[in-house]
Amino acid sequence: MSSYAVYNCVLAFSPLVRERYARRYLSSPVPLAQPNDVAYAVHGALITSVIYTRFYHRLRDCTEAEGQKTRPRIGSLLIL
């Protein structure tokens, strides 16, 4: 999601990118990035980063308790 946010923000706000877009696409010189596209992309990047920060530290410090084993099928599902 964050790369989508960067793409939309650059397409919407960068004068250099807008000028090159206009030169390349003569039939449609105004980029198609609308304010709602930028808002959706930034919103998605923020929500993704919040969700990721909620579980990342648990993944990094994950250890199995003594005598506890992860079943292979469940482990393979987690990897997918």
UniProtKB/TrEMBL annotation:
Top-level taxonomic group: Eukaryota
- According to UniProt, the name of this protein is Uncharacterized protein
> What is the organism field in this record?
Xylaria bambusicola
